[in-house]
Amino acid sequence: MRLLTTVAALSCYLTQRRSEKNCAVLDDVVLDEMTSWERTAVGLVPTMGGLHAGHLSLIQRARQENSTVIVSIFVNPLQFSPNEDFNRYPRTLELDMQLCEQAGVDVIFAPTPEAMGVPQKSIQEAKVTQVIPPSAMITGLCGGFRQGHFQGVATIVTKLFNLVQPDRAYFGQKDGQQLAIIKRLVADLNFPIEIVACPTVREASGLALSSRNQYLTATQKQQAAVLYRGLQKAEAIFKSGVRNRSQLIAAVQQEVAMVSNVLVEYIELVEPTTLMSLVKVQEEGMLAIAARMGSTRLIDNILLSDRLPIIAIDGPAGAGKSTVARQVANKLGLVYLDTGSMYRAVTWLVLQNDIPLDDECAIAELASSCEIKLTPSQNLQSPVQVWINGSDVTQEIRTIEVTSKVSAIAAQGAVRKALVKQQQSWGKRGGLVAEGRDIGTHVFPDAEVKIFLTASVSERARRRQQDFKKQNQPEVSLEQLERDIAERDWKDSTRKVSPLQKAADAMEIQTDGLSISEVTDKIVSYCQQLFSQTSSL
């Protein structure tokens, strides 16, 4: 790990790193499953230091998804007003460096204000070019109590994006207003960056982790947990059918009022993308709170959504994910997210438009602008009907011509980015069963149900040998199949980008000795039990 403190050093490092990546293939990457974009991807985790488990969760996610991870540590003077805690904000660089090294960070970028080209003044006093988000997004919630704060955040984040030019940047959901503003900034200024939102990490009491928590005494920390309890009370009545703003806010107020030394600044219900105030939750709402405990300002929020559940099934090769996922979707009446058919649909469209397979720019344009639709079918052999740009291509995508070309299309980074974006867009509505190597850890990290399907190497070898026999393929010994599977497992689990791993909140199912139907029934029973108090299933 390297510590860089100047823009010149950062620029030099990134130039060298990208040159190295373009000239060499990482030893731990399997070429037929990883695009060149993934092998060279840079992930940025912007922080102000004082790192805690919440920051580390962002870093861990970035480490899973990128070949290079950069953590910026910069206490940004532009986002503090003159009466705020800029001078006493936690600065713990030595400890932060230790935590970053343990987490596998490649570079810490810790510049001074001078190196970043900003004075140690508030945004109102600084004579620098400013990035000003839409006024409707910065005047409400925290913006009403911290004048200039989000202009200061947007200005420095823009500078970091320009300096690092990351493929992905990671932010926590705890700062919901900041997250929405940065997503809008990236969209409006056409930054080619994926903003990855990561769940709020909490102390055992429920208090959202924050660098400012260290200002609190042990007693104050316990008392401050009332903020989350209030949000939970509102979530409970939301699940019972309450959608009205006044009732949801009243539930939070009633709980928070039980701790007299918590001074509430606001409790608001807003649309989480636009931050516009909501009278009633139609699809999704963000219930946000800000309060002071002594001189310490704390914020928290919770998302309220009516979306149908997402069931994400991960696991090693040969564990039976695809077959099980199809049957689970069929039994629960959900859509099986057939990602393979999505790549086939794009391939079909490329062939229909006579685009050469090596014209990646034209294919990128096609993939990013096409509309794919999947609808469930009662036919388990073909459980999903596939539509692209209004055409039903369910049968056409199974032709020999498409089959022979799909691997070349799927290997292109722009295609994967476009299709993952569509998958995540569908995820907002829910009602999906999806399977893959990183479905629960990368594509749908907020899935309501996560299953890690696995089996012993010997069991998977036996299943594969049976499949070969059914397909009249040449016989391969069990010993050879076991060696191949063990090697594949090692490569999948140790690769630097998107490694195979069980999500922390996933239920593991060991399938040795179980039939497909038994595994399916186990998952369906688990899902129905989990959602027994809702009408989702």
UniProtKB/TrEMBL annotation:
<feature type="domain" description="Cytidylate kinase">
    <location>
        <begin position="311"/>
        <end position="528"/>
    </location>
</feature>
<dbReference type="Pfam" id="PF02224">
    <property type="entry name" value="Cytidylate_kin"/>
</dbReference>
<keyword id="KW-0511">Multifunctional enzyme</keyword>
<keyword id="KW-0808">Transferase</keyword>
<dbReference type="GO" id="GO:0016301">
    <property type="term" value="F:kinase activity"/>
</dbReference>
<keyword id="KW-0547">Nucleotide-binding</keyword>
<dbReference type="InterPro" id="IPR003136">
    <property type="entry name" value="Cytidylate_kin"/>
</dbReference>
<comment type="function">
    <text>Catalyzes the transfer of a phosphate group from ATP to either CMP or dCMP to form CDP or dCDP and ADP, respectively.</text>
</comment>
<comment type="pathway">
    <text>Cofactor biosynthesis; (R)-pantothenate biosynthesis; (R)-pantothenate from (R)-pantoate and beta-alanine: step 1/1.</text>
</comment>
<comment type="function">
    <text>Catalyzes the condensation of pantoate with beta-alanine in an ATP-dependent reaction via a pantoyl-adenylate intermediate.</text>
</comment>
<feature type="binding site">
    <location>
        <begin position="209"/>
        <end position="212"/>
    </location>
    <ligand>
        <name>ATP</name>
    </ligand>
</feature>
<keyword id="KW-0963">Cytoplasm</keyword>
<feature type="binding site">
    <location>
        <position position="178"/>
    </location>
    <ligand>
        <name>(R)-pantoate</name>
    </ligand>
</feature>
<dbReference type="GO" id="GO:0004592">
    <property type="term" value="F:pantoate-beta-alanine ligase activity"/>
</dbReference>
<comment type="similarity">
    <text>Belongs to the cytidylate kinase family. Type 1 subfamily.</text>
</comment>
<dbReference type="InterPro" id="IPR027417">
    <property type="entry name" value="P-loop_NTPase"/>
</dbReference>
<feature type="binding site">
    <location>
        <begin position="48"/>
        <end position="55"/>
    </location>
    <ligand>
        <name>ATP</name>
    </ligand>
</feature>
<keyword id="KW-0436">Ligase</keyword>
<dbReference type="InterPro" id="IPR042176">
    <property type="entry name" value="Pantoate_ligase_C"/>
</dbReference>
<feature type="region of interest" description="Pantoate--beta-alanine ligase">
    <location>
        <begin position="1"/>
        <end position="302"/>
    </location>
</feature>
<protein>
    <recommendedName>
        <fullName>Bifunctional pantoate ligase/cytidylate kinase</fullName>
        <ecNumber>6.3.2.1</ecNumber>
        <ecNumber>2.7.4.25</ecNumber>
    </recommendedName>
</protein>
<feature type="region of interest" description="Cytidylate kinase">
    <location>
        <begin position="303"/>
        <end position="537"/>
    </location>
</feature>
<dbReference type="InterPro" id="IPR024894">
    <property type="entry name" value="Pantoate_ligase/cytidylate_kin"/>
</dbReference>
<dbReference type="InterPro" id="IPR004821">
    <property type="entry name" value="Cyt_trans-like"/>
</dbReference>
<dbReference type="Pfam" id="PF02569">
    <property type="entry name" value="Pantoate_ligase"/>
</dbReference>
<feature type="binding site">
    <location>
        <begin position="172"/>
        <end position="175"/>
    </location>
    <ligand>
        <name>ATP</name>
    </ligand>
</feature>
<keyword id="KW-0566">Pantothenate biosynthesis</keyword>
<feature type="binding site">
    <location>
        <position position="79"/>
    </location>
    <ligand>
        <name>(R)-pantoate</name>
    </ligand>
</feature>
<comment type="similarity">
    <text>Belongs to the pantothenate synthetase family.</text>
</comment>
<feature type="active site" description="Proton donor">
    <location>
        <position position="55"/>
    </location>
</feature>
<keyword id="KW-0418">Kinase</keyword>
<feature type="binding site">
    <location>
        <position position="201"/>
    </location>
    <ligand>
        <name>ATP</name>
    </ligand>
</feature>
<feature type="binding site">
    <location>
        <position position="79"/>
    </location>
    <ligand>
        <name>beta-alanine</name>
    </ligand>
</feature>
<keyword id="KW-0067">ATP-binding</keyword>
<dbReference type="InterPro" id="IPR014729">
    <property type="entry name" value="Rossmann-like_a/b/a_fold"/>
</dbReference>
<dbReference type="InterPro" id="IPR003721">
    <property type="entry name" value="Pantoate_ligase"/>
</dbReference>
<dbReference type="InterPro" id="IPR011994">
    <property type="entry name" value="Cytidylate_kinase_dom"/>
</dbReference>
